[in-house]
Amino acid sequence: MAKQSGIGMTTLSIDDAGGTVRAIKNDITNFDVATPRGVQEVTGVDKSAMERLLLLADMSFSPSGVFNPSANQAHDVFKTVPSTSVARTTTLTVGGVTLAAELLYTDYSLKRAASGELTFDAPGVLADGTVPTWA
Amino acid sequence: MRVQPKLPAAAVKTYSVSAPLETHWRVATCTEVACPREEFGWTTLCLESDDLGQRQAHYIRNLSGRKFTERRREDGMTEFNFPPGQRCFSTVIRDGRAVAGHPKRIERPELFIVRDGDWRGNPRETAPLVHSGPDSWVDDFATHQQTLADAANRG
Prior knowledge:
Chain A is mainly beta. Chain A has helices at 49-57, 74-78, and strands spanning 9-15, 21-23, 28-36, 60-66, 88-94, 97-105, 109-112, 118-121, 124-126.
């Protein structure tokens, strides 16, 4: 096996509005992927199979990070979220394996703390209903 | 704006990779992060008719130590133009205090966490699981996703 650096997450890339992939890992402080807890628990006795499928595909992604206005960095990628509605390919590589998903980002909120810190949140949801798997 | 998930928070689990600002970032100079304001200069606007603007202008003129030219605009704002080659006003929080500089990642492995619930909270109040490294976190995540994908494919 090839040597790995101490950094476990090697890639975090998100498309900009034009569909060009941008590596913005260096701006990200936190990345959450919320996914259904289990198959049994989301299949209620009153649910049809169709509803269950929709529920299974339900997944949300939430990258947070520090504001970076440099070209092709996080701000360049997310500044078009309010003005465009395009699915963006989001790629996460950890420990040599990759999770890729088509996401619709629904917000780009900047927070300026009283102390001067400028951070952002850009929540996204699955765009195509496919359950993303690691490859 | 967030899309409200179809599932309740209790039926969701969250896989996180976290590099908190306090522990995984250090304070770096403008040059280290190729700060565009240092490279090309920048403009700061202050509205001196209110208290905040007066304090900002006072800081720039008397305390900042930066080179600048200033002019009063027609809309009443004071425009300070800073030429390239000097430190910008970016700050990083360290121990609760604002320190001049930019955040820059240090080579330390991120925290790999699995917890119940999502951004709405964790109604079941279970303890988070912190994996020892990326491999076991990915293994856990991949197995979980494959279970969901298999169930979805079965219909």
